Amino acid sequence: MSSAGRALPDVGLVVAARQGDQRALDDVVAASLPLVYNIVGRALRGHADVDDVVQETLVRVIRYLPALNDPAAYRSWLVAITIRQVRDWETRRRVALNRDAGLDAIHNVPDPASDFAGMTILRLGLTDQRREVAEATRWLDPDDQELLSLWWLEETGEITRNEVADAFGLSPGHVAVRIHRMKEQIQSARGVVRALRARPGCPDLGAVTAEWDGTPSSLWRKRLARHVRDCAFCARLGSTLLPIDRLLAGLPLLPLPAGLGAHLPSVSAPAAAAQAVALPSPTVGPAAGPTPPGGVSTDAGGGQSVVDLAVNRPRGLVPSLAAGVAAAVVAITMAVVILPDDPSAPSWAAPPSATPTAVVTPSVAPSPSARPSSKAPVTPVVSSARKGVGVWNFAGASQALANSKAGWYYTWGTQHPGISTPRGATFVPMIRSAENVTATELARAKAAGPYLLTFNEPDLPEQANMTVEQALDLWPQLMATGSRLGSPAVAWGAPDPQGWLDRFMTGAQARGHRVDFITLHWFGADFTTATAVAQLRQYLQAVYQRYRKPIWLTEFALIRFGAGGSQFPSQEQQAAFLTAATAMLGQLSYLQRYAWFGLPATAKDRSGLFRDGAEATLVGRAFQAAR
């Protein structure tokens, strides 16, 4: 078994945690988090709710741990709870889809930073056939994604077949039959992946995919697999595929993302300076020692325990779950919340008998002027991983960025000097122009994260000012970073035949260059909300229809550019557009991320969101509410 599997807590640690030992509980949660994250992330196929479901799982682990009868069965119990939370999420999603018919794209938008197939390839450095297996998992039937999340971990040595069976409530023999069927689906998808990537490719395959939108699905897997099976050229490509089991053996768990793991101490790290949840226990009361009113223990330095950071991190896309099911420290208010009994709680986990005093907490983050009761600064909730903003430095930029609730940001460079990244948000680097393609800048970009934005408005003399040939010549150096690359972001005309971007994409395909997503800018000159939103949507659709790749809209606002200077709408018009536009963007499944232009609001930058770290403009308040 891999070292990651052995890192799960031993029986003695689980027993101590059951009996109210706060240090043991902290270690149990920290050791469990990687396994829970890997199961949920793969089962949810990279949906933006991954972090929330991980959080809900850990809440239930903490609540029901005192009722666990057999500490030796902790891992099987943990896996079963995790799968239960995944299924509950699927049920809620189906209800939401039925309620919001016509807006189902909103509930199916993946968080690109949580794409487990892509992240497995990037973070574990998979090559060749292992990469093909990871890509093939995107084509599975939805019902098989839960099974995949556990089978993958079984093959990598993290869990056993019996634990997989226990999680689904099936016999090992029944699970074996389901796994065999799923492996056959992955095998056929591997043939499809290899055929689609072949250069030169099968000419007949192009005709089969003429109406395909480029999104992997079980329906298209069946259609394309039928062609691969019957085509002599494509079938020959799959003749050298190795068994999947051999390819997955020995792979480690996927590392935690920064938003979940950056602040977590190691399992063996001392927890003496931690805040802890005073857990009720059937046999032993809360840990001894003075605690402030409400049962919250704190340390002199205001540190946070793994329990607090893992369970009480700001929730992202599931605000209804703020009334969840556990008693825990709330990071923003430092109050204890006792939540109602969970009607969907597993029958084998009776709720603890003791209940601390309930303290009501506000349902929204306090205003910037509110004084927090903790020594730690108040960090507003990130409302969406898709929502971003362009940032250039100004007084109060870090606080403004945190107050904006943006899930990501960029600075038109590979660094963010003087700007702190809020907890839960991510920084995306950019190679702005040809002069930035240096070994130092490329190394910084590679270290900054899995995504890389590239040449900013190369079609404008005052921006990157590059020819298509110059960009294509430099592109291999960007590919060498291993990052997922956005196309150069042209100022306009992205879908135009023989336009700058069209010639770049044609040249990239001819040279075998990789472009992972299209980056766009759009500024509306018509300040009528309905017209502007319709124009933006038409532009995005035209670009997607031409290139069939995911889109990042990294600059957009209402600004009318002209020889006499830029003209701006009123704050009310800009705010109305932002609200309507972001609602529209949420319906586009191919629109992965967007970023408003920009964070600071000055006499020159009147589309901005904040005048300083605390004072949001009318547009800024609309942005805070946007998803």
Q: How many structural domains in the coordinates?
A: 3
Q: Could you name the ranges where pLDDT drops below 50 across 5 or more consecutive residues? A: 1-6, 100-114, 121-126, 261-303, 313-379
Beta-strand proportion = 5-15%
Number of strands: 12
SSE-based structural type:
alpha/beta
Approximate helicity band: 40-55%
Would you tell me the overall average pLDDT? 75
Q: CATH architecture of the largest domain, please? A: Alpha-Beta Barrel
CATH class identity of the largest domain: Alpha Beta
Termini gap: 42 Å
Helix segment count? 24
Largest sheet: 6 strands, parallel
Rg over C-alpha atoms, rounded to the nearest angstrom = 25 Å
CATH superfamily of the largest domain: Glycosidases
The largest sheet has its strands arranged as 7-6-5-12-11-10
* CATH overall fold name of the largest domain: TIM Barrel
Gross morphology: globular
What does this structure look like?
This protein has helices spanning 3-6, 11-18, 22-43, 50-64, 74-99, 104-108, 116-124, 128-136, 142-155, 161-168, 172-197, 203-208, 218-230, 232-237, 244-248, 258-261, 306-311, 397-404, 439-448, 468-479, 500-511, 529-547, 571-585, 618-625, and strands spanning 276-277, 296-297, 328-329, 336-337, 384-390, 406-410, 426-427, 451-456, 484-489, 518-524, 551-558, 591-596. By secondary structure, the protein is α/β, with parallel strands linked by helices. The protein has 3 domains: 7-97, Orthogonal Bundle (Rna Polymerase Sigma Factor, Chain: A), CATH 1.10.1740.10; 113-248, no CATH class; 384-625, Alpha-Beta Barrel (TIM Barrel). It has a 6-stranded parallel sheet, covered by helices on one side. The longest helix is centred in the N-terminal third of the chain and has 26 residues, at 74-99. The radius of gyration is 25 Å and the shape is globular. The two termini are 42 Å apart.
